[in-house]
Automatic annotation (TrEMBL):
SUPFAM superfamilies: DNase I-like. Residues 283-310 are annotated as: Disordered. InterPro entries: CCR4/nocturin_mRNA_transcr, Endo/exonu/phosph_ase_sf, Endo/exonuclease/phosphatase. The lineage of its organism: Eukaryota, Fungi, Dikarya, Basidiomycota, Agaricomycotina. GO terms for molecular function: endonuclease activity. This is Endonuclease/exonuclease/phosphatase. It comes from Rhodofomes roseus. Keywords: Endonuclease, Hydrolase, Nuclease.
Length: 447
């Protein structure tokens, strides 16, 4: 009997130890999950219903986000941020991307887009969520632009990378036909996506990080229009979505030219002051003693600092007629040749504000006076908000086919100013210095 009791006692002890190990394992797992949840916590986005979709067509959800490149993170630029290390931000970034539940994701980054060394972590997250992707980078850059799309919804019909520095804007000698002000090494990534369930239908998607001058915006619209004409059927051209960091606010000359508004006298003056030729184009330009490093200048053309994007540009000289920079009239004529893009947020938030389903304080026009007859007043209040630098630079535009207007049905509301103060990135709020944009679009089917 004693032997049997001993065996029972040992078995009970074994079971008790196993139970203790199981409980400890569960506790460790719960602690890890809690830690992971805390690392990935972000400020949730509310979605606004804009309007119902008419007729027969299909819906797609699109997001665009400018990711903060880790190589550009410096404490002096983000003195109030509490998550400047890559490990502190990356789970927040993954969660924000996936939280939009988008069919198409466009990703860039502050100044320089997505870094190659971060792709090794980002791509498995996208692939695990059911996305294929196209990645493109400019020559000599360690970063690029990425378009991800749901593999069960779209097939890749074509892709193209546009190097702005190599694009010709007129005939003439080498300098005049390119009309370059800076060598930026910036690119646009274009893809054609064919619907998996209806191969005759699809959408063209372009994402970019522009140099701040409107000449690159004009080139982008030209190349998107050309790519659409080459890729989609002439009798029923596909709609186009153009999203990214355009590096100019809604009251800038570039925005007005792109959307078809006439230039104001103030915009003409700022545009005239911007016509310079940088040392990256003309090596004979003397280097200013206080200039930044050559690598930093080339990366963004030395266009701006964190505090003042319209300051006098260093390492540059005034442009001459032989340099071939586009005049105001030439810029307007170049853009006039193509269909005008419609801003998804400017149109959608205008409708919501009129219907009292969106607060006026979430619009750009609430803090910057724009005449009612001009575009831009209903863009988000902010798309970039840091301690020193606060602006609207990111957009989502659409080009609708003839007689088939793309309709905005839902929008991800912008964050309130107090929610992103004193400046992002912030733990529990946002993992980048930019705020993502998201929209649901209705695309009418060909009749």
């Amino acid at each position: 009997m004693s032997s049997e009791r001993s065996e029972v006692s040992q078995e009970a002890q074994t079971l008790a130890l196993a139970e203790q190990r199981r409980l400890k394992k569960e506790q460790r797992q719960a602690a890890l999950e809690k830690e992971a949840e805390e690392r990935s916590r972000i400020l949730p986005r509310e979605w606004a219903v804009v309007q119902d979709a008419p007729g027969i067509g299909w819906h797609t959800r699109v997001m665009t986000w400018n990711l903060l490149a880790q190589t550009l993170v410096r404490r002096e630029l983000f003195p109030k941020s509490d998550c400047l290390k890559a490990a502190q931000r990356e789970n927040m970034i993954y969660r924000e991307i996936l939280s939009h539940n988008a069919d198409i994701c466009c990703m860039q980054g502050r100044h320089s887009s997505i870094e190659v060394d971060r792709l090794t972590k980002l791509l498995p997250v996208l692939e695990g969520a059911g996305y294929n992707h196209v990645y493109a980078a400019g020559p000599g850059k360690k970063h690029g632009c990425l378009i991800a799309f749901r593999k069960d919804t779209f097939d890749l019909a074509g892709e193209r990378m546009i190097e702005y520095d190599l694009q010709e804007i007129r005939s003439g000698d080498e300098a005049a036909k390119r009309g370059s002000s800076f060598r930026t090494r910036n690119i646009a990534s274009l893809v054609g996506l064919r619907r998996a369930d209806s191969p005759s239908e699809g959408v063209l998607v372009a994402t970019t990080h522009l140099f701040w001058h409107p000449s690159q915006a004009a080139i982008l619209l030209r190349e998107v229009s050309r790519f659409r004409d080459e890729l989609s059927p002439a009798e029923s051209p596909w709609p186009c979505i153009i999203a990214g960091d355009f590096n100019f606010p809604p009251d800038d000359a570039a925005y007005s030219l792109l959307t078809g508004d006439p230039l104001s006298p103030e915009q003409e003056a700022r545009l005239a002051a911007s016509r310079v030729v940088h040392k990256s184009i003309d090596p004979n330009v003397p280097v200013a003693p206080e200039a930044a490093t050559e690598g930093a200048e080339e990366d963004e053309g030395a266009a701006a600092t964190e505090s003042d994007p319209d300051k006098v540009i260093t390492n540059a000289r005034p442009a001459l007629p032989a340099d071939g920079l586009l005049t105001d009239a030439e810029l307007a004529d170049m853009l006039r040749q193509y269909d005008r893009p419609t801003s998804v947020y400017d149109e959608g938030q205008r409708i919501c504000t009129a219907a009292s389903t969106l607060e006026r304080e979430l619009t750009f026009g609430n803090r910057a006076p724009i005449p009612a007859e001009r575009h831009g007043a209903y863009e988000p209040n902010w798309t970039s908000y840091t301690h020193y630098w606060k602006s609207v630079l990111d957009y989502m535009f659409v080009l609708s086919p003839p007689q088939r207007k793309v309709i905005v049905t839902r929008l991800a509301k912008p964050h309130r100013t107090e929610a992103v103060s004193p400046g992002i990135p912030l733990k529990g709020v946002c993992g980048s210095d930019h705020i993502s944009l998201g929209a649901e679009l209705y695309l009418p089917s060909p009749s």
